[in-house]
Write a structure and sequence with these properties.
alpha/beta, disordered C terminus, two-stranded antiparallel ribbon, four-stranded parallel sheet
């Protein structure tokens, strides 16, 4: 049997052949999707999933997260760390979770992912999505009615608006990690998905408050892993390619 070369085995997509492929089609940003500003290939769930190849690991990951959010899988994990080199699909995976948690995917998209609609939460969970690049500890982010500076301030605001933010306002202004009590009030035992993309970028901006991020993530991780919790926390980290190669058996 003749072996085909790459040019014969792989047929480029129409947009590649026509020269219509743009850089923005490669630049997936979670915050653009959650704010409704992304390219349709990322913003529209069915376009997104039609252009997504669901590996077995991705399918298993989606099933486990949705199983915890919907309460259909009592053994599902609650805390996930996605660490791959740049371009490894971390942000793509978070966008997929965001669309699934919002129940925006069609039955055809769910079938492509090996999922069924019964696995989706019957009520839309609370969703928090934070990108480390976007956080600005020194100047803060203008939310219209408040200005948030740190990860915990943004989480509280996304969960409860300005009233929710008040629960951690002093910790946010001072750059001091709060405990997890504010999550009891804003989430409780309701389903909640917290997506944190590249917190290491935010860590490098924190200056003297940098030691507060590990303290907060420890408290947050402990809170989501409680037996009564239906919150899922997913954090991504970009693994250095040299370290990734060294760690490979």
């Amino acid at each position: 049997m003749a072996i085909k070369g790459l040019a014969q085995a792989c047929v480029p997509r129409d947009e590649v052949l026509s020269g219509e492929l743009t850089d923005e089609m490669f630049a997936a940003r979670l915050s653009d999707v959650t704010q409704g500003n992304a390219h349709p290939i990322y913003q529209d769930p069915d376009q997104f999933f039609a252009n997504t190849f669901p590996t077995e690991r991705v399918q298993a990951f989606f099933k486990e997260v949705l199983g915890r959010l919907s309460g259909t899988d009592s053994t599902a994990g609650s805390l996930f760390l996605l660490d791959t080199p740049f371009g490894g699909g971390k942000t793509h995976t978070l966008i997929g979770l965001y669309h699934l948690a919002n129940s925006n995917a069609s039955n055809d998209s769910l079938s492509r992912l090996g999922l069924n609609r019964e696995l989706l939460p019957s009520h839309k969970p609370k969703i928090v999505s934070i990108v480390g690049d976007d956080l600005d500890p020194a100047n803060g982010l203008d939310k219209g009615d408040v200005r948030v500076h740190h990860l915990w301030g943004d989480i509280a605001y996304q969960l409860g608006g300005s009233e929710g933010y008040k629960l951690v306002e002093q910790s946010d202004v001072k750059g001091q990690a709060p405990g997890s009590q504010f999550l009891d009030k804003l989430v409780g035992s309701e389903p909640c998905l917290i997506l944190i993309d590249e917190p290491a970028v935010y860590l490098r901006k924190m200056g003297n408050a940098a030691d507060q991020l590990p303290a907060f993530l420890k408290a947050l991780g402990g809170w989501v892993t409680r037996p009564s919790s239906r919150t899922v926390l997913v954090i991504t980290l970009a693994l250095n390619p040299q370290r990734a190669a060294a760690a490979t058996p």
